Structure formats: structure tokens, C-alpha cells
UniProtKB/TrEMBL annotation, chain A:
Annotated keywords: Membrane, Transmembrane, Transmembrane helix
Protein name, as recorded: Cobalt transporter
Record-linked Pfam families: CbtB (PF09489)
Record-annotated membrane-spanning stretches: 22-40
InterPro entries recorded: CbtB_put (IPR012667)
Domain of life: Bacteria
Automatic annotation (TrEMBL), chain B:
Entry keyword annotation includes Ribosomal protein: no
Domain of life from the UniProt record: Bacteria
Protein name stated in the entry: Cobalt transporter CbtA
Keywords attached to this entry: Membrane, Transmembrane, Transmembrane helix
Annotated source species: Komagataeibacter diospyri
Transmembrane segments: 23-42, 90-113, 125-145, 165-183, 195-218, 238-259
Record keyword Lipoprotein present: no
Length: 70, 277
């Protein structure tokens, strides 16, 4: 019995996931962009929820994460 | 008897769909984990800078109120909607956790497309490469043009314009990175990987440099604002991003490799073994 190492090219590469199988999950991508909007820009340049509460609540993270503020 | 161990990747639609789901959940979990690390760093290093900047702002406001009072004008102090204590603790935690978890999910979606379409077949390498291109496109390049600013830097009247410019810069940088990546794939067929990456990188730099030159500059730093405070704040902001993207890149790849190993009994990077009995 002997172990023979063969070249790594013998390993089949992972098959790409077809785009049509990824597409339905992009709805979650949009939800994540919405979440980022609330951290980064809500009640700054534009506003969905009236008042300044969201802005003030995430104020420190907005500054530290590099978003324009005030 | 000869057994060649192959990595049999799921090929059916249903399995692919479940695979994206698994990756998405994994991405958000790693993002959540990254958020805890980013928050700890921000709490220890970032918050003192925010406090110093707010102290500077208060001192400026007080001086202005005093000067106004001498001229007979009474300044109205703005009511504090969320206390500083809450902003610096649960507020910061919320923002950072939402940000990191969301980026974890987006990272996973990009990974589910990129894995198997890149030269490397090792999920750890794919993941790290995505994180490096991610931090450059999403944070480093946009903030070279429009850097992170502490409180008291920035005119409230220009917030709309500044936000617009920042997101334009980020969008162009992200699109530029996508174009450069596609170009790299195309060029790789003609040249070697090094040359292809070199040319694609130059293409990305050309795109973001031109855009940066065309967009207007924003400088609203008060003339007497401490330079070292501004520097420390920006370095801490960069530090948070490095922690988040490093955790995503290394963590997501490691978890994926671990899952593949358990599922397929296959080790990326190791050479396929030919057992001869």
C-alpha cells in the first residue's frame, strides 16, 4: 500500500451556483441595504421616519463608520 | 482497489438553493461575530475620540452663546433626544451590529456568486480576496475622498450634499471594482494572472481617481480643531473597518472550509490522495 500525491489540478473545482438560484435570495440583499440605510443616512439627508430619534440613537456609529453626519 | 477522493459539489437546483441559504445565514452569523469585535474596539478606542470632539463642540457652542449674550441674543439650547450615555453604549452597539450583520449577509451573497467562478478553488482564498476588494471598494477609496469625521466637523446645512457625494463616490468605487474584476477574468485568458490583475487594478484606479478629481472637495474642519484628534478618529474608524472585513474574510472562509470538510470529507489546498491497496 502506498500513498501517491497527485497534482492539485486533479481536484475538481466547486461548481458555480447558477445565477437563477442566487437571484431569489437577493431580496435579502435589499433588506440588508435598507438596514445599512437606517444606520448610515436615515434622518440625515433624507428621512422615512419623522423626527431625529433614529439619527440620534445610531449617532456615534454613524460617525465612526464613516458616514457623513450633522 | 483504487479510491480517488473527489469533491462532489451539489449540482441540483434544490441543493444549490439550500446552499445559498446556508451561506447567507453563515455570512450573517460571521457578520454578527464581527460586530461584537468591532463594537469592543470602537468602545475602547473610538468613543474617547467622539467624546473629545463633543467636548470641543460644547466649548465652541459655549463661547458662541457667551458672545451672543453680550450682544443681547439668547441662544436656545437644543434638547438632548438620546443621552450621551445611551449613544455611546446601546446606540453604538445597535449601529455597529446592524452594519456588520448586514455586510455579512451581502458578503455571503457575493461569495455565493464568486465561489467556483474564480481561479482559486479554496473557499478561504476566495473569501479573503472578496474581503480585501470589499474594504477597498466600500471604505478605503470612498474615505480617501470623503474621510470619516468626528462630531463638530461638518456643517448641518450641507449634510444632504455631503451624503450624496459620499454615496456617489462609494457607488462608483463599487461599480469600478466590479468592472475591474470582470476585466481581470477576461484578461486572464490572454495574459497570466499577474498581468491581468495588474491591468485590472490600473483600470480601477483610473476610474476612482478620475471620479475623485471630478467630484467637489469637502472641507468643513474648524480651523482650530485639534489635528491629532482628527487623525486618531479617522485611524480608529479605519481600524473598525479592518476588524470587520478581516473577520468576514477569514471567518467566513474558515467556516465554509470546515463545513465542506465535514460534508465532503475534502480538504482544500491538500493534494488529492490516491490510495492504492
Amino acid at each position: 500500500m502506498s500513498d501517491t500525491a497527485i497534482g492539485s489540478h486533479a481536484i475538481p473545482s466547486p461548481a458555480p451556483i447558477p445565477v437563477r438560484e442566487i437571484a431569489p435570495w437577493l431580496i435579502f440583499g435589499l433588506l440588508m441595504l435598507l438596514a445599512l440605510y437606517f444606520v448610515g443616512a436615515e434622518e440625515g439627508a433624507t428621512s422615512i421616519i419623522p423626527g431625529m430619534y433614529v439619527h440620534e440613537w445610531v449617532h456615534d456609529s454613524r460617525h465612526l463608520l464613516g458616514f457623513p453626519c450633522h | 482497489m483504487t479510491v480517488v477522493i473527489f469533491w462532489v459539489f451539489p449540482a441540483t437546483d434544490m441543493e444549490n438553493r439550500m446552499m445559498v441559504r446556508t451561506l447567507l445565514i453563515r455570512g450573517m452569523l460571521v457578520g454578527f461575530l464581527a460586530g461584537i469585535l468591532v463594537f469592543s474596539f470602537a468602545k475602547v478606542f473610538g468613543e474617547p475620540q467622539v467624546d473629545h470632539a463633543i467636548a470641543f463642540e460644547s466649548a465652541m457652542d459655549e463661547a458662541k452663546a457667551k458672545a451672543d449674550l453680550e450682544r443681547g441674543i439668547h441662544d436656545v439650547e437644543e434638547p438632548e433626544l438620546v443621552s450621551r450615555k445611551l449613544q455611546a453604549s446601546y446606540g453604538l452597539l445597535t449601529g455597529v451590529m446592524v452594519y456588520s450583520t448586514a455586510f455579512g449577509g451581502l458578503f455571503a451573497l457575493v461569495f455565493s456568486y464568486a465561489n467556483g467562478r474564480m481561479r482559486s478553488t479554496d473557499p478561504r482564498v476566495v473569501s479573503v480576496l472578496l474581503a480585501i476588494t470589499g474594504i477597498i471598494a466600500v471604505y478605503v477609496v470612498p474615505s480617501i475622498k470623503y474621510p470619516a469625521n468626528p462630531p463638530s466637523v461638518g456643517n448641518p446645512d450641507t449634510i444632504g450634499m455631503r451624503t450624496e457625494l459620499y454615496f456617489i463616490m462609494m457607488l462608483v468605487s463599487l461599480l469600478g471594482m466590479i468592472v475591474a474584476t470582470m476585466l481581470q477574468g477576461r484578461l486572464r485568458q490572454q495574459y497570466n494572472t499577474w498581468t491581468a490583475t495588474y491591468l485590472a487594478g490600473a483600470c480601477y484606479i483610473l476610474i476612482v481617481f478620475t471620479t475623485g478629481e471630478l467630484l467637489p472637495a469637502v472641507n468643513e474642519v474648524p480651523s482650530n480643531f485639534p489635528a491629532d484628534l482628527l487623525w486618531n478618529f479617522r485611524i480608529d474608524s479605519l481600524g473598525m473597518q479592518i476588524i470587520m472585513w478581516a473577520t468576514l474574510g477569514l471567518g467566513f472562509g474558515a467556516f465554509t472550509e470546515y463545513a465542506n470538510r465535514n460534508r465532503f470529507g475534502y480538504r482544500s489546498g491538500a493534494k488529492a490522495q490516491l490510495h492504492v491497496h
